[in-house]
Every structure is written in C-alpha cells, then in structure tokens.
C-alpha cells in the first residue's frame, strides 16, 4: 500500500503546472481568421467553403484550420500550416498572426488566431479540401448582429447506466444544457456554427479593446 504524508503531498504539488482536466482526451485544433486588404486598404475576412466530397461538414463555410500534428511546434504553427495548405500559399504569406481566446468543448480544444494574408491574389484553393473562397468586409460584421437560435442538449444515458447508484434513479433531474447558434448571411453565403461563434467573439474583442 502506498503511504503519503503531508510533506510528500506538498512536494508533489509544489512544481505541478495545471492544465485542462482530461486534456489527453481532447482533439486540439488551430484555426485562422484570414484578413485581406481590398478597395484601397479596407480589411476583408476570407472564408472557405468546404469541398462537397469531404466526409465532415461538406459545403459548410469555415476558416482555414485543422488538427494539431506532431510536426507543429505549437497551435500558432498549426494554424499557419493549415492556412498555407488549404489556400495554396507559402507560409511566409501569412503574417501578423495573433491569438485570442480559445474554445473548450466536450470533445475538442480550438485555438483561434487572426492573421494577415499578403498578396491574396496568389491564393489557389486546394480543391481536395476547399470548394471556393469568398471575402466579406469586416465592416459588415462590425455593423451586423447575427441571428440567434437556441439549441438544447438533453442527456441520454446508455441502456446499462447504473441508475441504482445515483440519487433519484431513473427520475434523476438531469441538467438540460442549451447554447446559442449564430447565423450571418452575406451575399448568399451562410456563416454559422463554430465559424460564426469565433467571428462574433473576434468582432466583440475589436469593439472593446
């Protein structure tokens, strides 16, 4: 039997650096809000439309990004690499890359960044992942509130869930969760889900910083 006294516990915890509980179970992603300049310097936000043959979310609007690989030095490098691969540009064409608040959900951690795309006319979308790209003036997001709709999530225990071990059994009062799904519509394009959430948060930071 392992025995510990208070001194052992103090020694073990003294140099420990906290992280997210169960972090090894999360998938981690880096994404980039690409900013391009048009019309004599006006900032635009570039969006991708996912290729229709993609297994996950075909046809959805998104930002460049993907899962952090072992080749990535950190989340920022992942976002730059994915942007380079998806837009067909050199990594050096992605500059002034800055992080903002990251998102932790039930299954993933998403690290968003904003960065400038130099010479956007050289973009050649990778057709294996990207159907097309389009640009939206930043002013649209600064001036437009997204539509908001509630989505509720109800816990659904498995058939063999041990109800006999919890107070209330099958009548246990589960907490129902809900969240706002945001929608932006621009020139026939629908921006929603995580992409809209990141964009909305980014615009909020620009307004308050």
From TrEMBL:
KW Cell cycle (keyword) present: no
GO MF annotation list: 8-oxo-7,8-dihydrodeoxyguanosine triphosphate pyrophosphatase activity
The EC number(s) this enzyme carries: 3.6.1.55
Cofactor: Mn(2+); Mg(2+)
Domain Nudix hydrolase: start-end pairs: 26-159
SUPFAM superfamilies in alphabetical order: Nudix
Class of enzymatic activity (EC top level): hydrolase
Domain of life: Bacteria
Keywords from the UniProt entry: Hydrolase, Magnesium, Manganese, Metal-binding
Name this protein carries in UniProt: NUDIX hydrolase
Organism of provenance: Lentibacillus juripiscarius
